[in-house]
Amino acid sequence: MKTEIKNAVIFGIVIIIIVGVISVILSSLNSDTQTTETTHEINSITKIDKSKFKKAPEIIGITHYFNTTAEKLANEIKGKVVLYDIWTYSCINCVRTLPHIVAWNEKYSDSGLLIIGIHSPEFEFEKIPENVESA
Asked: What global pTM score does this model have?
């Protein structure tokens, strides 16, 4: 009986060691794969061909500017990634996205992101510049 218990314990220890070795081998293979994938992703990001990017379309039909002028805006756009945020102040979805837009501006403006808000009124009361300014 003692021999059977001794053999079972030794067999259990051998199985645990084999499982541990296989686990270490598989985790090192996974780590190498992740490192290779990360390196490939970084290399892909640094090799972006910017000539294929579309230029920001010219803004036309603006009846009133807030916080800028047409000339100043044209100069600010040069060399930037531009996000046009088309909104209206009485739209609940527009209001709900505002914290995200502000966060993107704080996080990415130093990296070349320029966010331009374009108020596109739907109702007559939204067309009054003073109402937009006070909103």
From this structure: 0.57
